[in-house]
Specification:
329 residues; alpha/beta; D-Maltodextrin-Binding Protein, domain 2; 2 domains; ten-stranded mixed sheet; 19% strand
Length: 329
Amino acid sequence: MIRLQTLSLAVGAAMLAVGAQAADFPAAGRTITIVVPFAAGGPTDKVARDLGEALRKPLNGATIVIDNAAGAGSTIGSTKVARANPDGYTLLLTHIGMATTASLYRKLPYKYSEFEYLGLVNEVPMVVVGKPALAANTWPELKSWIQENKTKVNLANAGLGAASHLCGLMLQQALQTEMTTVPYKGTAPAMADLMGGQVDIMCDQTTNTTPQIEGKKIKAYAVTTAKRLMIPAVYKDLPTLQEVGFKNFDVSIWHGLYAPKGTPAEVVKAINTALQTALKDPDFIKKEESLGAIVAHDDRVTSEGHKKFVAAEVAKWGPVIKAAGQYAD
């Protein structure tokens, strides 16, 4: 009886400790780290830094820092968070790779079940762009040029599993044309070579392409969304790939927020509540819209809604990646 009573008291004390931890989250003086599994300066890094700023106020002015743990197609940073202490002070901000790495990697060092799903942040349309010296000026001209040159066309991407890689796969399948894929170690060097004319075309996020298109440093041909983009204005005259004959070609790259599995439910709720507040922040919305990103506002901003959405994305992208036969060990 004494042993059972002692055990009961111990369990009760542990539960009270967890409850106190959650009620005080974030504790005064504690820093929250958002791990970005990509290099600084890229589109996902930009979203993380803008979101971190928007989260500070609803998280009682907490200090939020960004940790760029890049490499291995986002798996290094994602693994770091999966193995972190599940207390809410280490989070992951990543993109669609959360749903595609299981298909891209034969030996993934973590499982989807090792995360708490905190909510969707945004969706980012993509656009087909080309080097400034490319002779084609419209989508029909670009399409004809690609089909005439095929494997002579250099299609850049930011590396295995990157948004530009995934969009490039779907573009080649839609055109039924295999191009020469040129992978880079990040978005910045890929875009630099596109602007410099070392590669021909790329399909990338508007968060990365908008300034370059506005500055006339690259050419833009078509967007990947179901409807035309009206904001920013530089996209409003571009056709969608569905308009030009590619039925069901609808690709947006999204970003979500995650915590390690086992993070107390009360802490998960506190972060999700802060996230939903941050997503309504006018300054955050303005920053995202200026780059063509669409801030999430539906049930996918909830923990359960986002988890269901990611599961659907896993099912969507698996066959595309399998058909392409591009894997990493």
